[in-house]
Amino acid sequence: MPSEDLFATAAANARKPAFVAALERCAAFDDSSSSLAAFMALHPRDQMLTHSLAEHRHADIALSQYFSIGIQQYRMLAQLIETCFGDAKNDIHVLDFACGFGRLLRFLRCGFPGMKIHASEVQRDALDFCAAQFGVSAIPSAFDPKEFRPGRSFDVIWVASLFSHLPQGLFEEWLRVLLSSLDERGVLCFSARALPAAHSDAQATLLYSPDSENPELGAQHYGTTYVDPRWVRDLVENRFGDGMKMHYMPRALANEQDLYLVSRRTLVRLPDKGPWGWLDVRKRASDGRVELQGWAADLDTLQPALVEIRADNATLQIGPSIERPDVAAVFGDSGLEKSGWRADARIGENHVEIFSVSAKQQRNLIYAGAIS
């Protein structure tokens, strides 16, 4: 667990106007949106954030990672909502199921202030926090899917990183329950980890380990799960779906989890995955020069992404050109062999913002914070 001081630093830095502006630049809210500044409270028991703080031991690195994932989820969900519902989006009901402490909800509430947003979570302190901070309708969840009674159907159900933690029985039962909670033309979006290649044979379905970043939930309910997409498709289209079709987007979320989109409607356009990246080196020399180095990728084209650096009220754009065979190996695509980038510049202020920029000019946050 991170120290209380480290979390306090992260919570304070998240509210800084420069950090909020960096997130809004990535989210690309329209003129009808609310200010994100009102939704930047963090909870000290947010496992997604505390796990990152404990791993990196640096408030700004952990914050940047935590929020970059939230931005990517928001952008994909926003595209799906606009594509499926267009001008009727303020009349739909959207459920963020297994919402945690609201990593996505703050962006969703800000970007769609008129939409009917619901949150469901088995952790009661998380659900209470989301209801109070983001003004969403709270629906208690349960460990037993049979006890989930939302009292209505939904046009969109979003489930990030729950099915990637469920044992087989709960995986199947929650999938059945959530599909039955959809409106006739609704869409269920959920993420899961793909089976490693060594296990992807004709007999493989699901692998489950009791280990996870949230042991408080109990290994019988929550661990680490890998599934075969073919098995998931069979569950959706042949067992539980009642005329539904599944669209599969491999490694769509943070290049780690696959995204499954399930609906009776025909999805004519799948959401863009957008840009991604990481900062490996952040050093200031005694003469004031700063060295920054990392990698950036466009997850849709699997080509290097442009890097944008903002500091001292100036903007610098860099095209990746450094050999990064390690990145190409992780992505499994030789197109990213030169996805590395490096910047060496004199920066006076102790703050820098670094973004990856896709071919469609979408931005995501690589890092925002101190450079000392």
Write a structural description.
This protein has helices at 4-14, 17-27, 47-56, 59-85, 105-111, 124-134, 168-180, 229-240, 325-331; strands spanning 93-97, 116-121, 137-140, 154-159, 182-194, 206-209, 224-227, 245-253, 257-263, 275-284, 289-298, 303-304, 306-311, 314-318, 340-346, 352-357, 363-369. It is of the alpha/beta class and 372 residues long. It has two domains: 4-263, Rossmann fold; 275-369, Sandwich (Immunoglobulin-like), CATH 2.60.40. The mean pLDDT is 94.
Give the secondary structure arrangement, pairings included.
Layout: H1 4-14, H2 17-27, H3 47-56, H4 59-85, E1 93-97, H5 105-111, E2 116-121, H6 124-134, E3 137-140, E4 154-159, H7 168-180, E5 182-194, E6 206-209, E7 224-227, H8 229-240, E8 245-253, E9 257-263, E10 275-284, E11 289-298, E12 303-304, E13 306-311, E14 314-318, H9 325-331, E15 340-346, E16 352-357, E17 363-369
Parallel strand pairs: 1-2, 1-4, 2-3, 4-5, 5-7
Antiparallel strand pairs: 5-9, 6-7, 8-9, 10-11, 11-12, 11-15, 13-14, 13-16, 16-17
Helix pairs in contact: 1-4, 3-4, 4-5
Summarize the structure.
The protein has 9 helices and 17 strands. With 372 residues, it is of the alpha/beta class.
